[in-house]
């Protein structure tokens, strides 16, 4: 049986002998390098594992003072070559790839010669597991991130991570790293956090990281440096995992098999010997590699890592104009968040305006408070903070926008109000300034219709919270020109957002789909379905939050307003729910401590035709399938992949669904509702 991956970019393990002062024998230094720069990180396929195996054999044969593994500049290793997983022919091959990684890595764990991982850069998945097999670990403070992200993809850490990590840093922290973080938009660890958890033995500065690591390792070998690790408390093991399982049940309702497999493996790690634990990893990995959830996870990963960086339909970036000053119309919460984001990312002056000085002062004050919080938490140095204080200012006089290159409005969601803002500002700003709107549902074309230069108006729709959600819907109006659009994409990239080009259609992508989705839920409520039943109907999807929690986050008034916009455009598909209006008018929270507010429930006027959970769920899925097909036919986005990217990055829909269209395909919903799949067979699904 061959494990050869035909398209594998082989990461070579390059061995050299290094003389270290104070040692009577050279050290063996193995450097992982796939021959590319940091933009193509080191990964392990069969060829890479074979190269590492050979390097370890050669190192052991030389009987060095110690063996150390490090990576090429900025990158240690980001794990297995996941692109080759769909090429595995059967479960036997899947089992073998797990066993191969375990066998090679275990040579470092079982070595009689001290082994070190010099984690000089990003270390994820199998890369971090490789480091965990070494006896000691140094970590660069400049490393981009550390993580075991496999659960987010539909896998488990399959090369020793579930067995080694909990016995190194304890079960609470290991559960966080292996399960909780991947399910929180794949949260990464910063080097300081990793060191505090005990993943690394010492944190060193990046400037002379390799030299200091060699020096530190020599101190360990000579007995001058003693590494002490706290004893792992095993009494709390069962309790932590019981709580973790309850949390998964409440949040995912069994929808993510990889998370539950990881829990089982963490339970095994408490008492099982290492060979038994890693054999269980092999079996779990082989099961998951041939799952629909993994195919969806790999598809979603590819969207986020590749498509998001090369937006479909974006104009030539050479057309983009420079932006040296930004204006923000409004000083409310959204505007203040935008001000901080623009100042931090673009490092240019940002000025906010509003109707009176009190509002302006409040907006600027919010920015200053957020900066102070970053400093107090050690996430920002005082020099950077002082610079940002100086960049953000406020004024009640819109003439402050006269020299701005980019002006964005975040005012009340009313077309007439926004048209009035742009009519006033067009007389003030310079002719080539881009006018961007953060509208969530209104027409860009209509907003710009009466302007002298409508070609410079563009939709620039952020998602709340601005600092967290990475999606930016860039909306092209009928007369938006390429230079304006190119500038918008360039600014989006500087803001470190993932931009998707969207046509000027009502509510664009995310809000249109979520409104249709919630509309199906509330239609069931209006018909007589109890709130509790409608709310838990979509639990089997494993969404980040239930419908009523989502509604509370969005705000019932906002949801009702967007629904009204869509009802005006598509009255046959977007109804008006009087019950939603009653909730919005009440001003009361819908959910209190995860329970539905009884006072809100009393406000509802419902029919006498309640639906079952299954009926509510299928109606919601049918509505999504129909709306997506219509959006694609209308050309709202280029392809179904852009729909999925928007739902993942803007609504937090999980990787195991592939966003939304792979799930609709594999459940047969898309073909039943629309007569066709959204994606070809074998894309985000098992071939067949």
UniProtKB/TrEMBL annotation:
Q: In which pathway does it act?
A: Lipid metabolism; fatty acid beta-oxidation; Lipid metabolism; butanoate metabolism
Does the keyword section mention Oxidoreductase? yes
Where does the 3-hydroxyacyl-CoA dehydrogenase C-terminal domain start and stop, copy by copy?
508-587
Q: Which UniProt keywords apply?
A: Fatty acid metabolism, Lipid degradation, Lipid metabolism, Lyase, Multifunctional enzyme, NAD, Oxidoreductase
- Keyword ATP-binding attached: no
Q: Which InterPro entries match?
A: 3-OHacyl-CoA_DH_NAD-bd (IPR006176), 3HC_DH_C (IPR006108), 6-PGluconate_DH-like_C_sf (IPR008927), 6PGD_dom2 (IPR013328), ClpP/crotonase-like_dom_sf (IPR029045), Enoyl-CoA_hydra/iso (IPR001753), FA_oxidation_alpha_subunit (IPR050136), NAD(P)-bd_dom_sf (IPR036291)
Residues of the 3-hydroxyacyl-CoA dehydrogenase NAD binding domain: 325-504
Please write the reaction equations for the catalytic activity of this protein. a (3S)-3-hydroxyacyl-CoA + NAD(+) = a 3-oxoacyl-CoA + NADH + H(+)
Domain of life (superkingdom): Bacteria
Q: Give the record's family classification.
A: In the central section; belongs to the 3-hydroxyacyl-CoA dehydrogenase family.
Name used for this protein in its record: Enoyl-CoA hydratase/isomerase family protein
Q: Which organism is it from?
A: Micromonospora fiedleri
Q: Which classification does the entry list for the species? A: Bacteria, Bacillati, Actinomycetota, Actinomycetes, Micromonosporales
């Amino acid at each position: 049986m061959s494990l050869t991956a035909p398209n594998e970019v082989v990461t070579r393990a390059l061995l050299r002998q290094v003389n270290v002062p104070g040692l009577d024998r050279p050290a063996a230094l193995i450097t992982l390098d796939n021959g590319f720069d940091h933009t193509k990180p080191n990964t392990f396929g069969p060829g890479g594992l074979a190269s590492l195996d050979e390097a370890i054999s050669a190192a052991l044969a030389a009987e060095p003072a110690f063996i150390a593994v490090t990576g090429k500049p900025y990158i240690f290793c980001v794990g297995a070559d996941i692109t080759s997983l769909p090429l595995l022919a059967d479960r036997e091959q899947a089992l073998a790839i797990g066993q191969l990684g375990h066998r090679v890595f275990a040579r470092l764990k079982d070595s009689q010669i001290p082994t070190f991982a010099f984690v000089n850069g990003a270390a994820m998945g199998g890369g971090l597991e490789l480091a965990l097999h070494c006896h000691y670990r140094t970590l660069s403070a400049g490393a981009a991130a550390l993580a075991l992200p496999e659960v987010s993809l539909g896998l488990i850490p399959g090369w020793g991570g579930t067995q080694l990590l909990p016995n190194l840093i304890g079960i609470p922290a290991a559960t966080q790293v292996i399960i909780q973080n991947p399910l929180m938009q794949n949260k990464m660890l910063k080097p300081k956090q990793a060191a505090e958890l005990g993943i690394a033995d010492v944190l060193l500065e990046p400037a002379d990281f390799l030299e200091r690591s060699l020096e530190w390792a020599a101190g360990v070998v000579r007995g001058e440096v003693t590494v002490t690790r706290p004893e792992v408390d095993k009494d709390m093991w069962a309790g932590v995992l019981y709580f973790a399982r309850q949390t998964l049940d409440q949040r995912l309702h069994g929808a993510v098999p990889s998370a539950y497999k990881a829990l089982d493996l963490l339970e095994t790690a408490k008492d099982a010997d290492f060979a038994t634990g890693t054999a269980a990893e092999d079996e779990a990995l082989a099961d998951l590699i041939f799952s629909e959830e993994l195919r969806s996870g790999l598809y979603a990963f590819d969207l986020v890592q590749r498509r998001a960086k090369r937006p479909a339909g974006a104009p030539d970036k050479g057309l983009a104009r420079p932006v040296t000053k930004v204006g923000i119309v409004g000083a409310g919460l959204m505007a203040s968040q935008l001000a901080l984001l623009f100042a931090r990312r673009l490092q240019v002056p940002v000025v906010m305006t509003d109707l009176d000085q009190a509002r302006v002062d409040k907006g600027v004050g919010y920015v200053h408070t957020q900066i102070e919080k970053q400093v107090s938490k050690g996430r920002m140095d005082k020099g950077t903070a002082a610079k940002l204080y100086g960049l953000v200012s406020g004024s009640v006089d819109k003439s402050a926008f006269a020299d701005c290159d980019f002006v964005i409005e975040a005012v009340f969601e009313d077309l007439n109000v926004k048209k009035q803002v742009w009519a006033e500002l067009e007389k003030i700003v310079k002719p080539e300034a881009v006018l961007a709107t953060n509208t969530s549902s209104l027409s860009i074309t209509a907003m710009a219709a009466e302007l002298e230069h409508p070609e410079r108006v563009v939709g620039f729709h952020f998602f709340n919270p601005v600092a967290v959600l990475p999606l930016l819907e860039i909306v092209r109006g009928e007369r938006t020109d390429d230079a304006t659009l190119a500038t918008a994409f360039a600014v989006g990239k500087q803001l470190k957002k993932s931009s998707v080009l969207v046509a000027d259609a009502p509510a664009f992508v995310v809000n249109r789909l979520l409104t249709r989705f919630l509309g199906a839920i509330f239609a069931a409520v209006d018909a007589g379905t109890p709130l509790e039943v409608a709310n838990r109907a979509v639990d089997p999807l494993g969404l980040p939050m239930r419908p009523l929690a989502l509604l509370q986050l969005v705000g019932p008034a906002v949801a009702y307003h967007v629904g009204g916009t869509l009802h005006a455009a598509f009255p046959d598909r977007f109804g008006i729910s009087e019950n939603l209006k009653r909730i919005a008018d009440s001003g009361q929270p819908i959910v209190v401590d995860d329970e539905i507010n009884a006072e809100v429930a009393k406000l509802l006027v419902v029919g006498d035709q309640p639906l079952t959970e299954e009926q509510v769920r299928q109606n919601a899925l049918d509505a999504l399938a129909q709306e997506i097909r219509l959006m694609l036919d209308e050309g709202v986005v280029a392809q179904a992949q852009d729909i999925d990217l928007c739902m993942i990055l803007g609504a937090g829909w999980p990787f195991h669904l592939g966003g939304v269209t792979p799930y609709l395909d594999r459940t047969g919903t898309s073909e039943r509702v629309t007569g066709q799949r959204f994606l070809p067979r074998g894309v985000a699904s098992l071939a067949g």
